[in-house]
Amino acid sequence: MRKGYRWGSRDGQWSRREILGIGAAVVIGGGWGIGASGAADPPTPERPAAKPPTSEPPARFRLGLVTYNVAKDWDLPTILRVCQEVGITAVECRTTHKHGVEPSLSAPQRREVKKRFADAGVIFWGCGTVCEFHAADAAVVRKNIEECKRFIDLVRDLGGKGVKVRPNGVPKGVEPAKTFEQIGKALIACGKAAADAGVEIWVEVHGAVTQIPQNMRTIMEHCQHPAVGICWNSNPTDVHQGSVAAAFALLQPYLKSCHINDLDNDARGTYPYRELFRLLRQSGYDRFTLCEVGRAYPDVAEGTAFLKKYKEQWQRLVQG
């Protein structure tokens, strides 16, 4: 080989076959690749190497707040101001709290509440009620259905999405299967009223016995009204062998809202929020995960600081 010659060249020139062979070797070996211009494009700080595609869809759900119990002592202007400051996008107003969003509001008051939410850029997600339909006394069940209808009218007038109701266990001495059917049938009446008003009914996964995922699934199968779904409640009974996947598979077809609580439970190993958020992401859930923490914060500054930290933790868990 004469001095100045490169291996494989003839008279200092590469043959077409040699050029193609080297190009193929670079591609097969995972080299830089060839840019649109035909030139090699090595990664640089300004142009990092392309990341491999991921099969995980982006999260479409957002963080909301149930006034139970962080904001139970705050009036509505305070709730909205804090939500703006923290970056919380939606609120579920739980009944009996200081915000005063109740069926007793007059028509002008309802218009004012609706305007306050709109002006703040915060979504009025709905009302959290204590309407329940498990009682052995049929008159009590009917009374709760009528109360639910009052909240339906309120949510419609405020431009909200739904009314949260709940089962609260099984009456002593009553066969659980009978109670599950009774709750489901009562929910049909609520669902019809909600559909007429253009809103939904969210059945919180709640109460001894009734919060067991399979039992809630049975209740929903007795109902089968399209305006009625479940509100996931992040209960210990969701978890089996460290996972909520089985419970989620049972209830996801009915999922319309979601409550989350102490996010530290993920690190403690008692509730897998990373997994829950992954399942929500994979299912295409595009509504809200609403913070529902048992501690009240009468001191607004303290409550605001808590919610800011909560949102940071939520973001980390959502990212996986």
Outline the structure in words.
The protein is α/β, with parallel strands linked by helices. The protein has a single domain, classed as TIM Barrel. The protein has 10 helices and 8 strands. The chain has an 8-stranded parallel beta barrel with strand order 1-2-3-4-5-6-7-8, surrounded by 4 helices. Helix 2 runs parallel beside helix 3. The longest helix has 22 residues. The N and C termini lie far apart (58 Å). The relative contact order is 0.12.
In the CATH hierarchy, the architecture is Alpha-Beta Barrel
Number of helices, where a helix is a run of at least 4 consecutive DSSP H or I residues: 10
Numbering strands along the chain, what is their spatial order in the largest sheet?
A: 1-2-3-4-5-6-7-8
The overall strand count is 8
Radius of gyration: 28 Å
SS content category: alpha/beta
Low-pLDDT regions: 1-43
Largest beta-sheet details: 8 strands, parallel, barrel
Taken together, the total number of domains comes to 1
Q: What is the overall silhouette?
A: globular
| Alpha carbon gap, first and last residue | 58 Å
Mean pLDDT: 88
In CATH's first tier, which class applies? Alpha Beta
How much helicity do the residues have? 40-55%
Say what the CATH topology is.
Answer: TIM Barrel
CATH superfamily: Divalent-metal-dependent TIM barrel enzymes
The share of residues in extended strands comes to 5-15%
> Could you spell the SSE succession in H and E letters?
HEHEHEHEHEHEHEHHEH
